[in-house]
Design a protein that fits this description.
Helices cover 40% and strands 16% of the residues. The structure holds pyridoxal-5'-phosphate. Its cofactor is pyridoxal 5'-phosphate.
């Protein structure tokens, strides 16, 4: 059914993810009815610049005809077939090859498809356990992630996530997951502590954790190159270098969760390139299909995939797989995303747009509510504080995030308040005038918020 333009709010049977359900019942639901480039239109026709690319994912905007055509062509030819039982469709095969080629500097060997970022992290955990069993190290089972990490919402990926909201009353995290420090110096550096001393301190905490638990019980470390949903948190200078040295020394695998940072967001194809990370496993989703259809993947090093092949042979077969793994229509769209990115040099475009994006972001620090700006490529955040000189946060009950979100919507801008910050992640196809539009609107929304807060 087409969304009826003119109708803005309606209540219904939908349980909205990440929404206060009581408030939603009072305010109703805002209908998103149409997409047009970097803009979306509500049911009443109100137009918004989508400063979040949906949920950090619609990188090519909302009306790329080539993605529609790629899906239509594959739908007509073969709308579905599976990758179980030594069968595959041409798009699934081609996409796996293209992804291995695209990540050649990381030397991945095999690709396992799934449908979402959560599933990619979930299956990575299972594959890690299977790998260590296959190579005769069955005690290596624990997984380390960081506070303020976001890895998804399945039992496993929510356990890896380091946010209370995803654990409280869900009886998570599960036992095999441990959390260590978030590497944001701005947030967790102590007064007077240098950035390199901060890194030494948190790496020391990690070493102490490994010592306590026993390196022979720890399998892998999960990390987003830049922690996204936890607040667009930049790792301290030198953090990943020190981290990787510790992990290598203890035989602990590194999993890069590139669900947000993959496919050009940071100004390189992958955040691991921007941050100098050499992962054993990489998880990708979101912008992989520009969010037009759900698809994700886990990329495995040769050492891991060889062991999985051998272990599976001993079992009789590889005992894992979901119905829609490598779905041909989703894969066809993802291939077309790669074609478009290459033909239009979209990563180059991100590098070209980034200086304007980051300078407009930086200028927002002049606003009384903005304590800090941070960003890379076309990913950014503003720290919103009640008293920026004394670093005092607003109380959750002040509802300042909601005020800012609504003020931005009134201006025709979608942004995402997260804890003490507001995240900004526009489609990668954004133009200079649209970047100006975004920050002009955000500035006016902050002014309204300030007047409300006073
Ligand atoms: N990993 C990261 C870094 C994410 O940002 C997200 C979602 O925002 C996920 C995993 C989970 O992905 P999904 O919502 O597709 O399950």
């Amino acid at each position: 059914m087409n969304s009826p333009v003119g109708e803005k709010k309606r209540n219904g049977s939908l349980l909205h993810p990440y929404t206060n359900p009581v408030r939603q019942q009072q305010t109703g639901t805002t209908l998103t009815a149409k997409g047009d480039g970097v803009h979306v239109l509500d049911g009443d026709g109100k137009r918004h610049l989508d400063g979040m690319s949906g949920l950090w994912c619609a990188s090519l905007g909302y009306s790329e005809p080539r993605l529609v055509e790629a899906a239509r062509r594959q739908m007509e030819l073969l709308p579905y077939h599976q990758t179980f039982d030594a069968r595959a469709t041409a798009p699934a095969l081609e996409l796996a090859e293209r992804l291995v080629g695209l990540t050649s500097e990381f030397e991945f060997d095999k690709v396992l498809f799934a449908n979402s970022g959560s599933e990619a992290n979930d299956q990575a955990a299972k594959l890690i356990w299977f790998y260590f069993n296959a190579i005769g190290k069955p005690r290596k089972k624990k997984l380390i992630a960081r506070t303020r990490a976001y890895h998804g919402v399945t039992v496993m990926s929510a356990s890896l996530t380091g946010l209370a909201l995803n654990h409280n009353d869900f009886d998570l995290p599960i036992d095999r997951v441990l959390h260590t420090d978030c590497p944001s110096y701005y947030h967790y550096g102590k007064p007077g502590e240098s950035e390199s001393d901060f890194v030494s301190r948190i790496i020391g905490n990690l070493e102490a954790l490994i010592e306590r638990e026993g390196a022979d019980t720890i399998a892998a470390f999960f990390a987003e190159p830049i922690q996204g949903a936890g607040g667009v948190l930049m790792p301290a200078q030198g953090y990943f270098e020190r981290l990787q040295e510790v992990l290598t020394r203890h035989g602990i695998l590194l999993v890069a969760d590139e669900v947000i940072t993959g496919f050009g967001r940071t100004g390189q194809m992958f955040g691991s390139q921007t941050l100098g990370i050499k992962p054993d496993i990489m998880n990708i989703a979101k912008a992989m299909s520009s969010a037009y259809l759900p698809i994700s993947a886990t990329l495995l090093s040769k050492e891991i995939s060889d062991a999985i092949v051998e272990g599976s042979n001993r079992q009789g077969m590889f005992g894992h797989g979901v119905t829609y793994s490598g779905h041909p229509v989703c894969a066809a769209v993802a291939i077309e995303v790669l074609n478009i990115m290459q033909e239009r040099d979209l990563v180059g475009h991100v590098r070209e747009m980034s200086p304007l994006f980051l300078s407009r972001l930086k200028r927002m620090e002049e606003h009384p509510l903005v304590a800090q700006s941070r960003g890379v490529g076309l990913l950014g955040a503003l720290e919103i504080l009640k008293d920026k000189s004394r670093r005092v946060s607003f109380a959750l009950t002040d509802g300042i995030g909601l005020v800012l979100k609504q003020a931005a919507l009134d201006e025709g801008l979608i942004i995402r308040p997260l804890l003490d910050c507001v995240a900004i992640c526009p489609p990668l196809v954004v133009t200079p005038s649209q970047i100006d539009e975004l920050f002009d609107k955000l500035g006016r929304a902050l002014d309204v918020t300030l007047r409300t807060a006073q």
